[in-house]
Amino acid sequence: MGAxxxxxxxSGATMKVAFESAHxxxxxxxGFDSGTIAEKPGFxxxxxxxxxxNLRELCNLCIDATEVDYDGHQSLVPTxxxxxxxxxxxxxxxxxxxxxxxxxxxxxxxAVGFTVDTNSFVFMGWAND
Length: 129
What we know:
The protein is of the alpha+beta class.
């Protein structure tokens, strides 16, 4: 089975209400194994999205941050691109960088959730398709 990166904007009185609405709508619209928010069992709240954050760049940094190579001894080591992405992510989300990357990268786990504005949220990550 594969996976796709998704990014979903949603509105609601709370992040939970927004997630549930977007999740239910995606289930209705796309069904199962859709590579959408419909595949996520919940979300992890990463707080307020820092002002000026480009969501496409944030998604790409999360993808790049997980790139690894073999070091010749059967060990995985982060690529230079992954190291650069992690450094850039630290300037955006600070101490929760690794938690963000791990959550984003788990196609079976919760979605990454950010508050964009009052009653406005964004959810993202890999999802099973």
